Amino acid sequence: MLERLRFAFDYAIRNMLRDRRRTVFALFSIAAGVATVVALRTLGLMLTDALTSNAQAFLRGDVRVQSSASGALSLFGSAAEELPFTAATLPAIDAWAAQHAIEITYRLNTEVVQAAVVKDDLAGTPAMALAVFIDPDVYPFYDVIRAEEPRGALLADLFTGPNQAVIARRLANQMGARVGDQARIGSAETLYTIVGIVPDAAESSFDNFSSVMFSFVYLDRAEQPQFGLAAALASHAFLRLPEGLSQAEAERLIQRDWPRPAGTMSGRWRVQTADDTLEVNTVVADVISRFVLLLSLVGLVIGGVGIVNTMLVAVNRRALEIAVLKTLGLQGSDITRVFLAEALVSGLLGGLVGVLLGFALSFIARDLGQQAFAVALPWRPYLDPALIGLALGVVVTMFFSFLPTLMAGRVRPSLVLRQGSIPMARAGCLPTLLSMALLVVGLGLLADLIIGSYRFETSLPPFLTPGIVGVLGVFALLGVVFVLMWALVWLLGRLPAFRNASLRIAIRGLTTHRSRTALSLLALIIGMAALGGTLILARSLNMLLYTSISQPMGGNVIVISLPLVTSLVHGRLDDAPGVNGYRDVRFAFDADLERIDDIRNIDRLFDRADPQAEMRQTQLEMLIGTTIYGDPPRGHLIAGRFLTPADAGQPVITIPYIPELDAAGVGVGSTFTYTIGNGGRRRTVDFEVVGVVAPDTGGGMIPFSLGDSAVQVPFNAVPAPEGMPFDIVIADVEQAAVPQTLSRVAAVPGVFVFDISIFDSMISRLMNQLAALPLLVAGLSLFAASALIATTVSLATMERRQQIAMLKAVGVGRWQVLGQLLTENGIVGLTGGLISLLPTALILAAVPALSQGLVTLPAPADLMLLMLILAVLITLIATLLTAWSVSGEKPLNVLRNE
Known about the structure:
Helix content: 40-55%
Radius of gyration: 35 Å
Shape: globular
Number of strands: 22
Strand content: 5-15%
Strand order of the largest sheet: 3-5-9-6-8-7
Number of helices: 26
Low-confidence stretches: 69-80, 421-425, 698-704
Number of domains: 4
């Protein structure tokens, strides 16, 4: 038996060395799938290390305490007394900590502050950030925060005096700030010196969604009074426990001894221990790690299809050799053993190459993973991904090689010696079904092992598992799609050639091996659909949210200011170049529409079954006070006139054009009666309609626009809402003049100003973070699909060497031969690209239908065209790489060898 095994491996290795080109592409197919597994498995382990290696560093202490009512001081009206730690509670807590030998430090988070670099008394472009007030000497108790600039400096060493700030890298880029610059931060009158720039991951957004949208700045808690905050105010407390005091006991003492937090109904503190964090992070990391490893099987299966193609070609090309071996006395089992040995060696070698390639791809996976999970991911050469990737590569190679090896063992010498080859159908129904069953069961058990389905109870029969059922369902779906692709390839073979000989040969080449072409087309569609769908839907959602948030504002610069300085803001805008106009805006959130003319039941004018009609009715309840200065966008006037500054104090109103109102005869001269005001100061006012304005069709999901399609009255007709002691000014500024305008207005104390494009950047950042992981998986799947396409093209050209040689013998040039092959595979790429866009196009078309017309996802035509071009380029590049050498061979050598 050992002699037979030795013969099988010796013969297999010699065959691989003799047919090096086919071997290379077989190894490339295996390596592409294994690389996908290694890269994604490494990503999962990096995330596990980041979340579980030091839970105390992740939590910033052994115990973190905050109130369940509020975790941050809000710019928009949250009272400071609602924060859990104040001058009334801190002395008792500090005394308690000293009594139990516990170290304690505090942190205050604010939701948003504005920061801008100041040079020569001129403020630069402002940016919004989260202010994090800390005790820099001790924060954090665990973990080490080192600066990028000055490189490697500790956070505690950066703060050496008053009026100093340390900012995150993203904020530094937004502000154009460098170490040593002076910056105005928030409402502080004193300028702050930027003494350091730290990585964005210094404050993880894994458990803090706000930091996904905004960057942050570190400030000393001792300087909170400069921002109008009490020095004792804090939102979080971090505890470092002495030896002998458990985290559970510390939590019990906190709930028993600490004064009750303000603003909570339960009267309990929200306590999170490092043990709790470790438990949660372990579960999260395990789920994500298993999920990405399961997704990596997609690339491995695509690589396995390349193995099948390569082995089938090997069996067909070596049919005569097999027949001779069998006539010399070798049995079918010996032939099968030879091909299994070749598959095993291919799996090992391809797996080793894939491991190295996977570690290289893991650097890309780390970058996208850091973007997706917003935590720093430490890279190191893990042994686990290498072993798993190598094992899966060998196992999947053996699974996919089972059918070709059975075919090799069933070669009939008499048949082969007569006709010189063996068709695939000769494998027989039973071996084919047996090999497919082995493949489904094997992959299903791998999926079960990855997801840990043994931990869950199911109602499936004993011989079935969730993995087997899932793989069977996927294979059934892919089988249906494969049949459709096979039919499509048949149709492509019927394309007209327009009496062009080269085009006719290219079209016929498509149908020479329909199944192989259909598999390549299917792999390309899977990879491109995943990649294109992720990118296109992310861009579409980005465009939708931008138009839904930004465009309806009626301007591109927003100013939030105290009423006392509004006149100064007006002056700065009046003097700033590039300002087309601006408007003061005040919202009447508590306005109620009582009647229109004599119509008291407004509901009867609108169809309640029509969501758009309901939104148009809601539009009438949103009353906005405004005063226009200059010439900002105001929409299309249908009837009457716009409001003017002369209307101040007058009960007049402009309304958007609404079909239901127009049908009821409501227009210029009609009377809208609203009840407005706060609390006991509510009053009823009759407003006369003086204008009807066409709504903004680009308003997206927001049913009104401050610029033209809102119900507008004079500014002073709307009382200031309670809890909002500031006014809003919206300016329309030419894009080139926006930075200068921001700088001029930001110099006014007590003013918060920003460019509306900040929403675009925040939305883009959010979409990029959400799409990072799907994009990684899609990219790796497309990489495996590209390897399959290259393998398929290579096998096709190898099989057609004799045809190519005959063409060259009758005068066809090398570039003509390449042109035929490029045309043939370009058709495949174009077809695959078009079909891969179909699922995304169906989603874009289905959203308006499912939302009853409320939401329409814009189609990014440029990105869709780019994906189509990419699909074609992949096939053309794969063709050039694999067909170049064959197209250059001398016809005499080929015809002699063949």
